[in-house]
Write a structure and sequence with these properties.
InterPro entries: DCN-prot, PONY_dom, UBA-like_sf. By secondary structure, this protein is mainly alpha-helical. The chain contains seven helices and two strands; from the N terminus they run ααααβααβα. A two-stranded antiparallel ribbon has the order 1-2.
């Protein structure tokens, strides 16, 4: 079922109202949940952590980044393919497109450190 832009905006607004997050976070979770509001909210709430966890979160996120990065301090295509596989997805899965959008990939299969860290830290 394809949703029109108006319905998608309504779902984003409902997500934001319920979670007190922002529209960017709402859109990303809704994309990953294929626009199922209940699933998106449940996933969002499952990833919530206490505010004092941010320093530990940064170290954990950087450790993940370092596992997949190449010599140029970015995750390149080989690292991206390993990352996707480790997440349990295939490169053709829709969730991979949502992930690339969420991490603001500047080109196919590339994730700079700054984007990777800031975007994953925003998921709280």
């Amino acid at each position: 079922m394809s949703l029109d832009a108006r319905r998608k905006n309504q779902l984003i607004d409902q997500f934001v109202d319920f979670t007190q997050s922002n529209s960017s976070v709402a859109k990303n979770f809704l994309l990953l949940a294929r626009w199922d509001l209940e699933v998106a909210i449940n996933e969002y709430l499952a990833y919530q952590q206490p505010p004092n966890a941010s320093r530990k979160d940064k170290k954990s996120i950087l450790a993940i980044f370092d596992e997949y990065k190449d010599e140029e301090d970015k995750i390149g295509i080989d690292g991206t393919l390993r990352f996707i596989e480790d997440l349990g997805y295939e490169p053709e899965d829709r969730a991979v497109l949502a992930l690339a959008e969420f991490l603001e990939s500047p080109s196919v299969g590339v994730f700079p450190r700054k984007n990777f860290l800031s975007k994953w830290q925003s998921v709280k």
